[in-house]
């Protein structure tokens, strides 16, 4: 089994770690850039995107994350993590890492009060629809070259996208009992090694 690190500087990293451990994957918490050398893939969790990006820069992660991504390390961003790995934002801040060829809008569905849940058909997932939990969710506004839509809302807005070994979801799979999307990411990591 690969080791899948979870960026543990802000947000719901514990929930991701618990899901990974439940499916038998070693999931160390990543708090410093050098710890990325010890994992095969990385999850950037949901949380507050501006704070996550500020802490990425304070702790010196930006250069290392870009290098690891360029070298082929699989990275999955959920909610705020989607914002962090985007190539550009429709908002002025924060400055994303520019890893994935997508343009993202923060809090695209409204405030906390406007959070919602919806069943989703996700490409590559067998079985019933996946129950998506959207909390102050971002939205993909533009899909660039090499990006494939993996799931969309009923109105056609993409909420899960993949670009080779990069994966992003606008929703929170870690807040459900369904482990299939984490299992899918583990397969992406296994395929990269």
Word description of this protein:
25% of the residues lie in helices and 28% in strands. It contains five helices and twelve strands. It has helices at residues 13-22, 49-58, 61-70, 80-85, 180-192, and strands at 4-7, 29-30, 41-44, 75-78, 86-89, 100-105, 116-120, 130-134, 139-143, 148-152, 158-163, 166-169. The longest helix has 13 residues, at 180-192. The radius of gyration is 15 Å and the shape is globular.
Can I get a quick summary?
This protein is an alpha/beta fold and 193 residues long. The chain contains 5 helices and 12 strands.
Search tags:
5 helices, 3-stranded mixed beta sheet, single chain, Rossmann fold, 7-stranded mixed beta sheet, 193 residues, alpha/beta
Q: How is the topology of this model organized?
A:
Blueprint (H helix, E strand, L loop, with lengths): L3 E4 L5 H10 L6 E2 L10 E4 L4 H10 L2 H10 L4 E4 L1 H6 E4 L10 E6 L10 E5 L9 E5 L4 E5 L4 E5 L5 E6 L2 E4 L10 H13 L1
Parallel strand pairs: 1-2, 1-3, 3-4, 4-12, 5-6
Antiparallel strand pairs: 6-9, 7-8, 10-11, 11-12
Judging from the principal axes of the Cα atoms, what is the shape?
Answer: globular
Number of domains: 1
CATH topology: Rossmann fold
Radius of gyration: 15 Å
In the sheet with the most strands, the strands line up as 2-1-3-4-12-11-10
Can you write the helix and strand succession as a string?
EHEEHHEHEEEEEEEEH
Low-confidence stretches: none
Mean pLDDT metric: 94
The CATH H-level superfamily is Class I glutamine amidotransferase (GATase) domain
Helical residue percent band: 25-40%
Count helical runs.
Answer: 5
Strand content of the residues, in percent? Answer: 25-35%
Classify the secondary structure makeup into a structural class: alpha/beta
């Amino acid at each position: 089994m690969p080791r899948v690190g979870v960026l543990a500087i802000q947000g719901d990293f514990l929930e991701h770690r618990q899901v990974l451990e439940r499916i038998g994957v070693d999931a160390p918490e990543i708090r410093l850039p050098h710890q990325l050398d010890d994992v095969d893939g990385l999850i950037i969790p949901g949380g507050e995107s501006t704070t996550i990006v500020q802490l990425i820069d304070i702790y010196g992660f930006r250069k290392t994350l870009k290098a690891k991504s360029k070298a082929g390390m699989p990275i999955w961003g959920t909610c705020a993590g989607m914002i962090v790995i985007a190539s550009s934002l429709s908002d002025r801040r924060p400055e994303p890492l520019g890893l994935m060829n997508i343009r993202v809008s923060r809090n695209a569905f409204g405030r906390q009060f406007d959070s919602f849940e919806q069943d989703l058909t996700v490409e590559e997932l067998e079985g019933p629809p996946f129950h998506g939990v959207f909390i102050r969710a971002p939205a993909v506004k533009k899909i660039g070259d090499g990006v494939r839509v993996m799931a969309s809302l009923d109105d056609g807005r993409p909420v899960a996208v993949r670009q080779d070994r990069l994966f992003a979801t606008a929703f929170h799979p870690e807040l459900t009992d369904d482990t299939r999307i984490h299992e899918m990411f583990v397969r992406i990591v296994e395929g990269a090694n």
